[in-house]
Amino acid sequence: MERAIFTLDDKIIFITGAASGIGKATSLLCKDLGARVVAADLSTPDDIKAALSLSDRDLALQVDVSDEASVSAAMAQVKQTYGQLDGLVNSAGISGMGAAHQVPLASWEKTISVHMTGTFLLCQKALELFLEQKSGAIVNVASTYGLIGGTGNFSYNSAKGGIVQMTRCLAADYGPMNIRANCVAPGYIETPMTTMLDGDAAEPFRNRFVAMHSLKRAGKPEEVARAIVFLLSDAASYVTGAALPVDGGYSAAKEIIL
């Protein structure tokens, strides 16, 4: 009986950034666990379907998470197709490098629009369905740098910190309606967005960064996906407002070199 709480059988799960990285790994795992996946990405529906081998019971939607009309249209299609929504995973993201004095306003606004405005819009529109049902689970993808400070990524780190706080506020506002909100905080994960650290020039920095994780290795998207699926599932039915590090110990401890 207890094994059933770890499945997503017949649940409808909406995932942004679904065609690559953590979003792709989450989409594939949700499918494996019986969910119907609404895979949203900037890629074309055909490319999304090909990346995830989607079946006729799934949806592939081209969505700009920072655009309200695009998000509203996607949620309307979910309601028309399924009549319900059980889970939302906000995984779409971009990088945002540079210290504060180096960040052009346009770069700041783009990073904030994808991470924070995108998460806000998806949550807002999904909540319309969740409130009707009096149920739902939100999992936002933050970052270990949403939990601690860090150098050189002012826009990205600020946005991820905002997502952590947004998650807590969602949990507080909607818990009485049986709607849960949690986030994961990944450390260094091998995704297309971290390929900037590949190559000879960046290799020493990458190695130092990875060595700062207690497990002494980079994480895999599938490892983050497992944590996301746990938070979506009934196994986490009494978990809300949590920021779960999936960072190989990076945010918990640092070595002291004597």
Task: Describe the protein in words.
With 258 residues, this protein is α/β, with parallel strands linked by helices. It has one domain: Rossmann fold. 41% of the residues lie in helices and 14% in strands. It has a 7-stranded parallel β-sheet, with helices on both faces. Strand 5, helix 5 and strand 6 form a beta-alpha-beta unit. Helix 3 packs parallel to helix 4 and helix 4 packs parallel to helix 5.
The name of the CATH architecture is: 3-Layer(aba) Sandwich
Specify the CATH class. Alpha Beta
Instruction: Kindly state the percentage of residues in helix.
Output: 40-55%
Estimate the global geometry from the Cα principal axes: globular
Total tally of structural domains: 1
Number of helices: 7
Radius of gyration: 18 Å
Number of strands: 7
CATH homologous superfamily identity:
NAD(P)-binding Rossmann-like Domain
Unreliable spans: none
The percentage of residues in β strands lies in 5-15%
Which strand order do you get reading across the main beta sheet?
A: 3-2-1-4-5-6-7
Major sheet summary line: 7 strands, parallel
- CATH level-3 fold name: Rossmann fold
Structural class: alpha/beta
Q: Give the averaged pLDDT, no decimals.
A: 94
Element pattern in H and E: EHEHEHEHEHEHHE
| Amino- and carboxy-terminal Cα gap | 51 Å
